[in-house]
Predict the 3D structure of the following.
Amino acid sequence: MSGERLAPRPLRLVFLGTKDFALPCFERLADSPHELVGLITQPDRPQGRRQELIPSPIKLAALRRGIVVHQPESINSSEGVELLGSLKPDLLVTAAYGQILSPEVLEVPSLGGINLHGSILPKYRGAAPVARAIQAGEKESGVTVIRMSPRVDAGGMIAIVRTAIGPEETAGELEARLAVLGAPLMVEVVDRMAEGPVQILAQDGTKATKAPKLGKDDGRIGWTRPATAIHDLVRAMQPWPTASTEWHGDGKPTLRLIVHRAEVVEGSREAGVVLEAGSDRLFVSAGHGAIRLLTLQGPGKRAMPAGDFLRGQAVRVGELFV
């Protein structure tokens, strides 16, 4: 009938993703009317004490669905570009893939590529946007779908969804929530691109901040910092690399401790000094205010509540955490 709106044709998609953040988006696209013709993911890496090659959850999900999986060492190599060309994609969709795509890769599909990023851009461009946002004390986060460009997370913005960060929410918890939040948003963007050109908003580069990859030293607690900043650090470093400190007990060997959970309390003394240690109450003074250590883990031990730790370790008021 004249005037009827025709349904857009399904797009041929190639998905590039590796980490758990990418899985909800991948599965939603696999269930959509679009044709997911392949998953490109990083090669399996040795893991654990036995250094076994363990496939990622997204790879297993693709195999269960009968979607072909490719694991090139570099998608930007001539072999990688040739592989993409053989799949004849209309559009590349990426999330937590782990490689920056070259101009040659982005030129393969007719519609280029789009990426799901775990921050409200232009803030927190880089590998660890969720952890860096919590570490900085942000109260709000979100996901942004961007047009891909060779520069890290600098492409034009197509869609954004925002959400409040819970006061006790860890980076791992928030990242899992953002992944679920971003999945339907990505499908919506792909649907719109199938219908025709989409509006793209350029990022304001003057407001850009960086979110560099986390390292083990990022979790070291500096007790001269305000208690709120230490609390944010503990949340930001979960599940990796975790926040850590050293306990200097009188006449005892220095003991490195992982801090899994903490909360801000009142207290004032020299930074790092134990203010209270008894029952389940382990309070340590910060640069401003104090921290109650709730869950701790010693070398070779399991994580345990502070009360269990105190029953096994004679921590005294006045001793130091550094």
User: Anything to note?
Assistant: Helices lie at 23-30, 57-64, 78-87, 103-106, 129-135, 171-195, 227-236, 306-312. The chain has a mean pLDDT of 95.
